[in-house]
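Quick note —
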Amino acid sequence: MTEPFKIAIAGLGTVGQGVVDIIQSNAALIKARTGRDIQIVAVSSANKNKARSVDVSVYEWVDSAADLAGRKDIDCVVELIGGEHGVAHDLVAHALESGQHVVTANKAMIARHGLKLAQKAEYKNVALKYEAAVAGGIPAIKTIKQGLAANNIKAVSGILNGTCNFILSEMGLSGRAFDDVLVEAQAKGYAEADPSFDIDGIDTGHKLCILSALAFGIKPDLDNVLEHTSGIREISSLDLKIADELGYKIKLLGSAHVDEQGHVAQSVEPCFVKKSAPLASVDSSFNAVFFDADFAGQVVNIGRGAGAGPTASAVVADIMDIVCGDIGTVFSVSASQLKDARYMDSSRDEAKYYIHLSVEDRPGVMANISSALSAEGLSIDELIQRHYHVDGPVSVVITTHKTTRYALTSVLNKLQALDCIAEIVSVYRIFNI
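Predicted structure written out below.
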C-alpha cells in the first residue's frame, strides 16, 4: 500500500481553512488523481481556540509554526501565515534546508526572497510551489511554466488585485466617489481595515514581480517594480465618466514587457483600457492575466483572484503536483540561470496618454495648449472640451498618439507654466493590447 503524503499547515485563516475543507471534502477525488492520500499531520496558527469553519481538532496542534520545519513525519509544509519576513520566511527557509517540500500563497515573501529560497529548494531537490501567490485560482504560474513553456513571452500584464478592481468598477457604474466605494468594499470584505497595501498598488507589485521573473527568466527585483508603482487613491468619478465617453475603462494594471534587445520595463499604474480589449470586460473582484507569446500569441486567463475557495484550490493543486512527482524548478528556469534584468530607460518608453486639464474659459487657451504640445512633437489623437460643472473652469481632455515619457514630462511642465491652466487634473497611460 502506498504511504499517505503527509503535510502540515501553518496558518488557519480563510485560505488555511479552505485547504483543510478541500482535503477533507475531496479526499477520494484527490487520491484518484494522484494515487495517494494527502494526510494532514499537524496544524499551527496564532489562536488555537478561535472559531473556525472546519474541524481541526483531529490534527496535532503545534503552538510554534517554526517547530514544523525538519520533522521527519512531514513531507510538505504549507505556509499560509503571510508576510515578507519573520515567522513565515524563517519557517519556509528552514523547511527547505531540512529537505521538506513547501507550498505557499505568500506573494510578498516570494517577490522579496524568491531567488534565495529557490536556491535552497533546488540544492535540496525539493519543491517550492506558490501558484496561489498570484491571482488566486487563476493558473497564471502554470500557464507560464507549462502552457507557454516553449514560447518566448514578450509581455505579461494583468488586473491582479480584486479590491482595486471592485472599487473602480463600482465607481464607474454608480458615479460615486472613491472614499464612499472604499467603505462599501470594506463592508463586503473586499478591502482590509487598512487598505493601503491594495489601493496603493503594493499587492499588485508583488504579483507583477513574480510574473516578470517567470516570464522573462530574470531575478525577481521587487524594488524596481515598487519604484514604478502607483495606486488608485487619486482616481475621480469624473475621470471614469470621461473614460466611458471616450470608449475606455480605467483599470489598475501590473504590466511588464521586454524589447528586442532584452530590456525590461515593469510598472503598476492605473491605465485607460479600450472597452473592446479583453481586460476591460473584467469587473468587480475578478482578476485577469494577459500574456503575449511569440508562437501562442495572446492568451488571457480570467477568474477569481482571491477568496478561500479559489486560493485554497491553487494551494491543494500545488500539493497534488508534488505528490505526482512534479518538483521542477521554482521559476521557469533554474535559479542559477536567472539573469540580472537590464531595464529600459523609463523616460524613453513609448505609450499613448490621456491628459485632463482644468482651464479658464477664454479665447486663445486651445492655441496655447496646442503650441505646448507641438513644441515637444506630441501629436493629439483626440481632443474634447466639456463644461462638467455649471460654474468654474472647463475640462479639456486630450488623448495623444505614441510618445515618450520624457516628451510627456516636458509637455506637462510647459502646460503647468501657462496662466490659463488652473490645474493638470490627471494623466494616465493608455494601455495598448
